[in-house]
Amino acid sequence: MTTGLIPGGQPPDPGPTGGLPQQRHEPAEQEALHIDNRSRSSVITARAAASFEPVGRSVASARAFVRDTLQGWGYADIVDDAVVLTSELVTNAVVHAGTSADVLCLRSDDGVRIEVGDHYPEREIPLQGQAVNMGSPDREGGRGLQLCAALAGHWGVDYTPTQKLVWFQLALPGRPVGARAAGPALPSALLPLADGRVRVAVVQIDRTGALTSWNEDAEELFGYAAEQVIGKPLSDLAAWPHTPGTGTGIAEALRLSRWEGSYGIRGASGRVTSVYASHLRVRDTTGEPSTVCLLVRDHERAVLQTPLRVPASDTATASDGQSTDPFEVFIGSPAPDDLDGLLQRTVERARDMLDGDSAFLLLATDDETELEVRASTGLPSARQRFARVPVEAGPGRYGSARMPAVHDDLTAVPGAVPLLSGTGMRSVVTVPLKVEGRLTGSLGVAAESPGRYSNEEALRLQFAADRIALAVESARLGELERLRRGSLSFLVEASDLLAGTLDRDQTLALMAQMPVPTLSTWCAVYTIADQASEPYLSYVLHEDEELIDGIKSLLSKISPPDPVPTPGARVWSAPGEAAHQAALRSSMRSLGMSGGPPHQVTSASGIGPTLATASAVGGETVVLPLVARNRVIGMLTLGKPTDEHFRQEILELAEDLSRRAALALDNARLYSERTAISQALQRSLLPPELPVIEGVEVEVIYRAAGEGNEVGGDFYDLFPIRDGAYGFAIGDVCGTGPNAAAVTGLARHALRLLAREGLSGPAVLERLNSAILDEGARSRFLTLLYGELWPQEDGSALLKVVCAGHPLPLRLRQDGTVEPAAEPQPLLGVMDDLELYEQTVTLDPGDVLLCVTDGVTERREGARMLGDDGLADVLTTCTGLTAGAVAARIMRAVERFAQDAPSDDMAILAMRVPGLHTD
């Protein structure tokens, strides 16, 4: 695609162009362009345009064009909305209106405007003031304007006699800017503790994302010398906690004026160090922008973390002038849409406020039946994140997350707080997060010693939870909305990919590829042939290709999941248990072989890959049934690595994907079955292997027109009649495809039966004519060349032929002359009474008899046609060639005569009597 350049900028990567768009180049002008937007004046700083043909695949190409353009401009946050709206509008143009679609993307200070125009040839312009038809949401078409009204800030429709232009404008996402903050003065005893020298890594990243400086503390923290990393992208080292559809990544964070948050850095040892980072974007004296990043270990975040300042009116003040409002100390200063940052700071402040050893925060599902772990501190967070526990964990008020609860000693009440099982925590206080009386989450603080908390601490924690509940719910809803919009875009593209093929193997591959890595780390697809068959492991994929074989081997050793038709994802524990057992066995073998820990054993022993596979499959595994037409046809299995869980929104998205994938797989199955049946029936219409005739060379070339057709209206046959006599035929039924092939089967089998009854050639064709007419409305006329062949002792061959409306056979003599070998007679399937006669032809040694169907002689290139004369000219060049070489040369000449694929069936039958001395 071609886009206008912003001053000082670079054009975005053009991306894929699979829909064959007709590019419309726009001038890359440096001056600003102006448009009138319904009384809103905008300054256009960049533009990109393309046109798309009126074919179905153009919709996917238009989406790719808009996505690549907006991502190139740095507006990843609005890509999903723009793609969904563009998809609907382009579909209306190329599918419903049947015209090409023009897509224009305009960037301005106010936002991004996208225009989609069609070219309907005759359009009535609405009267001024006439309302635009928004359509019905239940209809297949007409939803585009409703989506524009729902998602776009501004939109409109412009009409001309030949074009309808629908445009919409999306506001740019807000960018948080830097702010100054100050914390209260604290006694030394209240200052955070460090477990040694605090190292602050200082790194600088240029505008391309590459590292330009790396200080000594960075070397100590991460194990890389400066010369090892300078010039490399920070993204090569950063382990960014990305959730599909939720926006900001490391590249976006580096473009913000100021950013704070947590992520990981992969050290030289391969381990990921959790860091807390503060980014500040600056520019040097030449105006070149760069980003300075300060990084400390995550548990030392107090060195960099900026506290939130609250209005004085909302803050209680103690006698010494210091703030005593727990909310100020409790909440911190996350960005308004950073849910993960907000939750992480919440649990850290809650732990500090009650002097606990750990804290956790869970968010409730929409139906308030389960709680999902979203943040924790002092606990194995990787194992707990996105784990789900029931709201009502047991009898009584202490087993419900809807009420505050204090447990003095968890060892006395096992399982009271399932999240803390096996963590060493003894006492815990939990309080609900509620908004307008509805449970939205639960906050808890735990300690390793018993009896640490009383009702007073529960009241303090509840007060803080009440202050933060609305902010958490608002951020959660914002994240959920972004995730759902991203999910809609994901499902649209998945549906396009699945609808683009009817090949079963390719459909299975797509089903495994689409969830990885967006929804899961690995995926396995089981298929079920019929109700009596066991599930079969058909496809396995992991984001690390080196682990695929190991996972496939592991899954093949355990029983497949039960094909339960109940919709929704269900947990499948067998892979995790098998992975755990495999890891134990590998560890025992490792200790026995080397006497050292497992990681010291080389991969050559085969133990390293086993441990890696066990780790890759050791997390949560879920199974989604593939149900199509009220039958379970397979299972889609999604998995996470060790100690990781699925979030509920991802499982809901996976369920939507499984429904689409099941229907696509069943359609591919039905298509494959019908194709196999069709091919088997078609092959039955072709003769078996040609008989070997002593003293005569025979070669046949057959091409059926139409994709997937092996037999059409043209046919041939060569068969023994009796000792020393052979029958041959080449014919052409009116039309092509299956209907013509049905008459082909009738003709070929009737010829064999009648010829073997001892009837002459004319009698055989007259009875075949009657059989065709007996078909009634299904009958089709037929041109046929039928003959009988007798090889002679002197090396010649005697032929008796009847040419019923068929192109005349051509005889090639040794001297290069070509002449017809029969006379034309009436075709079959038209008249009741036929008077046919046979003609006798003798092929001398070295002579060739060429028989073709009209697909050969009527080969066209524009107004030119090969014709009988053209065929005869090609045949004159075949003197001295074998029958196979003659047939091949004729076919090459036909194929080279025109560039387009043949539109008619073609059959070539060449018979040659070898020369007495030359062969």
TrEMBL record:
Residues 202-232 form the PAS domain. InterPro entries: Bact_Sigma-Reg, GAF, GAF-like_dom_sf, HATPase_C_sf, HATPase_dom, PAS, PAS-like_dom_sf, PAS_fold. PROSITE patterns: PAS. Keywords: Hydrolase. One of its GO terms (molecular function) is phosphatase activity. It holds the Pfam family PAS. GO terms for biological process: regulation of DNA-templated transcription. Residues 1-31 are annotated as: Disordered. The keyword Hydrolase applies. It comes from the Bacteria. NCBIfam families: sensory_box (TIGR00229). This is PAS domain-containing protein.
